[in-house]
């Protein structure tokens, strides 16, 4: 096999279809390649911002040698060695084996949003009601300044951890709002971060805030958790480390939470932002 074909990137509507196309093109079974998901893709919002999935298939050394007739030389797999994960004080310390996110990431943390049909307690204390109204007004003002026509609704959700406070969720609703999300939710995260700073200053204290657009974060949370479980199964089946696409800290955190109690895999984060990613490693 030509050395140039030891790596192959494939683009398709879904991750599964991209993997299937790549395996068919290489003429190899899944066990003979390492699969790295570069982009899970997205269906977009209201048909806008659709992005296809992209994966990279790397032929394993044994399969490469077999196809070329060369003897297999022993190789040290440095990727299976422990990764020393040193973070600067400016970066978040991700959840994994008992670690938690830093306060800096609190403003862009996408908690699992469980609105419970948006039902609120029949009575909120004055402070909670004031926080709702302040958050709604701040986000509404920012959206207006961006010259985006939308309605804004604020309510309390359910935390993804029993010992956490309920997040205050501000959902922006309207038509053609993909501009508020941006590539990899960068625009939405920036809007949430700025909103959190303004709201915290007005209230005199910080609070767990989630700014969302048409339920995007809830859908993305489900996608990331599903991806984590699927790649964990693949790691167990193949016995090989699996690499996820680069993700922001809040999405990496979701992967760690989803798999922290898994009996057969561990999760680790490697690399530097903005290319920092989670790897899923089979337990020895």
Kindly summarize this structure in a few lines.
This protein is α+β, with helices and mostly antiparallel strands. The chain has six helices and nine strands.
Helix-strand blueprint:
Blueprint (H helix, E strand, L loop, with lengths): L6 E6 L2 H12 L6 E7 L13 E7 L1 H8 L57 H20 L5 E6 L11 E6 L12 H18 L5 E5 L2 H23 L3 E2 L5 H11 L5 E6 L6 E6 L2
Parallel strand pairs: 5-6
Antiparallel strand pairs: 1-3, 2-3, 4-5, 7-9, 8-9
Q: Low-confidence segments, ≥5 residues, pLDDT <50?
A: 1-5, 68-119
- Indicate the percent of residues in helices: 25-40%
> What is the helix/strand order?
EHEEHHEEHEHEHEE
In CATH's first tier, which class of the largest domain applies? Answer: Alpha Beta
Main beta sheet: 3 strands, antiparallel
Number of helices: 6
Defining traits:
single chain; 284 residues; Ribosomal Protein S8, Chain: A, domain 1; GMP Synthetase, Chain A, domain 3; 3-stranded antiparallel sheet; 9 strands; disordered N terminus
